[in-house]
Design a protein that fits this description.
This protein is α/β, with parallel strands linked by helices. It is built from 8 helices and 16 strands. β5, α3 and β6 form a beta-alpha-beta unit.
Length: about 400
C-alpha cells in the first residue's frame, strides 16, 4: 500500500513539474516577443494580397533629379482648393474657361506666314464658331524641355544629337528657359538640369549625355516630360504668358512603358504643350518570328511620332542623315517663335471633362495664296471642383508634383 502511494506521489510530482516547465516556457515566449500575438492577429486581419518579385504590380514611373520648387503652391484639395484655410460656407471660384491656342500659319509650300490679322482667323469648337478675344503675334518667353533618348539604339547618333541640342539652346533669347532630360527605361528618366536660362550650364550638362543599354520607355518619358513643362510656372497664372514646348529626340520604338498610348494622349489633351519630335527611324524594320512577320516596328514608331506632333500642334522630323540635324534644329527654333497666340472663351462653358474638337480657318484674301493654320486639334474641358467668391480668379490650378498619375 505504501509502495502504491509513493508511486502515485512520484507520478503527480512529475506531472506538475512538466506543467510548470511548460508554463514557464510559454511565459518566456510571450514576454520576450510581446508584439508577436498582435502581429499574428494583424496578419490574419489583413488578407489583401501582396505581390513581390517578377509578378509585382508595376508602379508609375517618376522623374528623378527634380528638386522641389521653392515656394511651390500647396496641392489643392476639394476642402482647400487653393492651399489656404477656408471659413465655413466659403466657396471657391476658379476661372479656367479662357482657351489659349498656339497657332502656326504656313502657305502650301510650308513657308511661314506672319501677317494674318485677328479678323481673318476663324476658330470653331465642336463645329461652333467662337468669338476671338485676342490674336497676338507678340514674342513671349519660351519654357521648353529637351528630352533625348539615351538607349543603345541611338549610340551612333548621340554626338550629332548633342550638337543639334546645342544649336537649339544657343538660339534661346532673354527670358527663355530649358530643362534637359535623358531617358532609357522607366526607372531611368532623369532631369539632368532643371529649367535654366544659363546657356553655358545647359551646354555643359548636355555634353555629359551618354548611351546605355536598356528597354526604351518612350511613352513614359514623354508623359512625364510634358507634365513637367505644363506645370512649370513663372509668377501667378495671370502673369505667366509663356509658350510651352517639348523637343524629343528618339527612334520612337517603345518597349516597356508603364503608360499606354491612350493614357499618354488623354494626358496631352489636358495640357497646352507643343511637341516637336526628331525621329531616327531609319534603322527600324519588320520584326520576324519564324514565318510570321509582325506589324512593322518602324511603322508603329512613325505613327507614334506623327501623332505626337499632330495632337499637340507641333511638328515631326525624320532626318535622312545626321547632316540634316543643324537645319532641323533651326526650323524647330523658328517654329517655336513665329506663332500666333489666339484666345477665346468657349460658348460651351460646361466643365464636364469632355473632349472638344478645335479647328482654325483663315478667310481667303484676294491675291493671296492659301494660308493654313496649324494648332492642336482639340482639348479636354476641365472638371468642376469647389468654387469660392473670396479668392481672385486664376486661369488654372497648379499641382506641384512632377510624378506621373496612374491611368
Amino acid at each position: 500500500m505504501k509502495l502504491v502511494r509513493r508511486q502515485m506521489t512520484n507520478r503527480a510530482r512529475r506531472v506538475w513539474t512538466a506543467f510548470g516547465l511548460s508554463a514557464m516556457a510559454l511565459a518566456f515566449l510571450i514576454f520576450s516577443h510581446p508584439g508577436r500575438a498582435q502581429q499574428q492577429t494583424q496578419t490574419q486581419q489583413d488578407s489583401r494580397p501582396r505581390r513581390v518579385g517578377p509578378n509585382a504590380v508595376p508602379t508609375p514611373p517618376k522623374i528623378s533629379g527634380v528638386p522641389p520648387a521653392p515656394g511651390a503652391t500647396p496641392t489643392p484639395t476639394p476642402e482647400d482648393p487653393n492651399g489656404v484655410e477656408l471659413d465655413e460656407g466659403d466657396t471657391v471660384k476658379v476661372d479656367t474657361n479662357l482657351v489659349n491656342l498656339n497657332v502656326r500659319v504656313i502657305d502650301r509650300n510650308n513657308r511661314t506666314v506672319n501677317d494674318v490679322r485677328q479678323d481673318e482667323f476663324r476658330v470653331y469648337e465642336d463645329g461652333v464658331l467662337q468669338k476671338i478675344e485676342f490674336a497676338s503675334k507678340e514674342e513671349v518667353p519660351i519654357s521648353y524641355g529637351l528630352a533625348i533618348d539615351n538607349s543603345g539604339s541611338l549610340r551612333s547618333q548621340i554626338n550629332k544629337v548633342i550638337e543639334a541640342g546645342k544649336t537649339i539652346i544657343n538660339s534661346n533669347k532673354p527670358g527663355d528657359e530649358t530643362f534637359l532630360m535623358r531617358f532609357v527605361s522607366s526607372d531611368k528618366i532623369e532631369v539632368k538640369q532643371d529649367f535654366s536660362s544659363d546657356k553655358g550650364v545647359l551646354t555643359e550638362v548636355l555634353e555629359d549625355f551618354y548611351p546605355e543599354g536598356g528597354q526604351t520607355a518612350v511613352i513614359d518619358a514623354i508623359y512625364l516630360a510634358a507634365e513637367h513643362v505644363a506645370e512649370y510656372k513663372k509668377g501667378n497664372d495671370l502673369e505667366d504668358r509663356r509658350r510651352r514646348a517639348l523637343i524629343v529626340v528618339t527612334d520612337g520604338e517603345d518597349r516597356v512603358s508603364y503608360y499606354s498610348q491612350e493614357a499618354l494622349f488623354e494626358r496631352l489633351r489636358e495640357e497646352d504643350v507643343q511637341i516637336f519630335v526628331i525621329g531616327f527611324v531609319g534603322e527600324l524594320d519588320d520584326e520576324k518570328k519564324g514565318f510570321i512577320i509582325r506589324k512593322s516596328v518602324k511603322s508603329k514608331a512613325v505613327n507614334l511620332i506623327n501623332k505626337l506632333a499632330e495632337e499637340t500642334g507641333g511638328r515631326a522630323f525624320f532626318p535622312n542623315s545626321l547632316n540634316d540635324l543643324p537645319g532641323i534644329a533651326e526650323e524647330i527654333t523658328r517654329d517655336m517663335r513665329t506663332q500666333y497666340v489666339i484666345g477665346y472663351y468657349p460658348t460651351n462653358d460646361r466643365r464636364d471633362g469632355s473632349y472638344r474638337a478645335i479647328r482654325i480657318g483663315i478667310g481667303d484674301a484676294t491675291g493671296r495664296d492659301k494660308r493654313i493654320a496649324i494648332t492642336r486639334p482639340g482639348r479636354t474641358a476641365p472638371r468642376d471642383s469647389v468654387t469660392t467668391t473670396n479668392t481672385p480668379p486664376r486661369t488654372n490650378n497648379v499641382k506641384p508634383t512632377t510624378s506621373g498619375r496612374k491611368p
